Amino acid sequence: MTDILTMTPNPAVDVATSVDRVSDTRKLRCSAARRDPGGGGINVARVIHRLGGDCLAICLAGGATGQLLQRLLEAEHVPAVCLGIAGETRENFSVSESSTGLQFRFVLPGPSVARKEWERCIAYIQAIPEPPRYLVMSGSLPPGVPVDFYAILAREARARGTRIIVDTSGPALACVLKEGVSLVKPSLRELRDLTGLPLAQEEEWRNAALGIVERGQAEILVLTLGPLGALLVTRDVMLRTPALPTLVSSAIGAGDSFLAAMVWALNRNASVTESFHYGLAAASATLLSAGTGLCQQEEVNRRYQEHFSD
User: Is the residue at 112 inside a domain?
Assistant: First the structure.
């Protein structure tokens, strides 16, 4: 039995480069590009694997970019099943402006996925003989995948005793929360979109998060706030922690790393608060990495010990 399964319906090959300054019209001479396997659940699986967790990444992938995605996962020794689709897996592109430290991120929508393709994905997960302890569903839905895709998976997996973890946005998030999940990790923007409220003050963030928990839509809600840190809300715990001091190389994948480390810790029977602190340590460690290099185990452990160990 695999402890943790991640589902990424819209993975990507993430291309990262840098240039002195971004400007229009003229050609911009960039540094050599790096390519990493990407997409929410893919990044979660990469970090869990680095932390020593038992994880299998499942995604929909097609075309030459899909083949490259598979090779990149194999190069990192991340256990993965790439279910084939006719469309071409997308690339995402990020450019760091070395003169200012700003980062520009260009995210493509992904290929159109046929009904038989996304249904095959659901059937594959349903057919796993021993259900995982955790199913992490993360990232956007590509064109053609219905808005209740995550909700369908959540309903089926919960019936088999699996705990559901969700990190998505928009209608897909609203739909899956109706099923009730173990953990959801919205950003402040995603929480505003979900509630339709401006959420201008911290008290409003807390009330909105607590309302989701009290309605039974999530047992644990983690609100990620970028440079302001994060907020943990359960029926018994409400904890706001500032971001750890870090020199930022790239913010890509920090939220995915947070979620990965938290699920990894929960799977080791750590407390919710301890798991939350591991998430903060992993997110800050990822900020040190170029592009979507993500965090390394040694740095995560060092930051956890430095900031949260008694």
Answer: yes
Write down the pLDDT at residue 94: 95
| Pairwise CA distance, residues 181 & 266, whole Å | 15
In a domain, 28, yes or no: no
d(C-alpha 101, C-alpha 103), whole Å: 7
- What is the domain extent for residue 49? 4-19+33-308
Query: Given phi > 0 = left and psi -120 to 50 = alpha, else beta, which region is 269?
Result: left
Assigned domain for 27 exists? no
List the catalytic residue out of 14, 20, 256, 310.
256
pLDDT (0 to 100) of residue 248: 87
∠ Cα 112 4 70 (to 5°): 45
Q: Hunting for tokens 């609100």 — which residue is that?
A: 223
For residue 290, the model assigns a pLDDT of: 82
In a domain, 266, yes or no: yes
Q: Are 105 and 92 in contact (CB under 8 A)?
A: yes
Residue 271 to residues 35, 37, 195, 266: CA-CA distances in angstroms? 35, 30, 28, 7
- C-alpha distances (whole Å) from 233 to each of 25, 70, 111, 122, 240 are 47, 36, 36, 30, 9
Sheet holding 90-97, edge to edge: 34-38, 12-19, 90-97, 103-106
Question: Domain containing 162 — which CATH number?
Answer: 3.40.1190.20
Is 256 a known active-site residue?
Answer: yes
Q: pTM score, two decimals? A: 0.97
pLDDT at 157: 96
Contact 261, 281 (CB under 8 A): yes
| Mean pLDDT, the chain cut into blocks of 10 residues (310 residues total) | 95 96 92 95 98 98 98 98 98 94 93 98 95 97 98 96 98 98 98 97 97 98 96 97 91 96 98 98 94 92 93
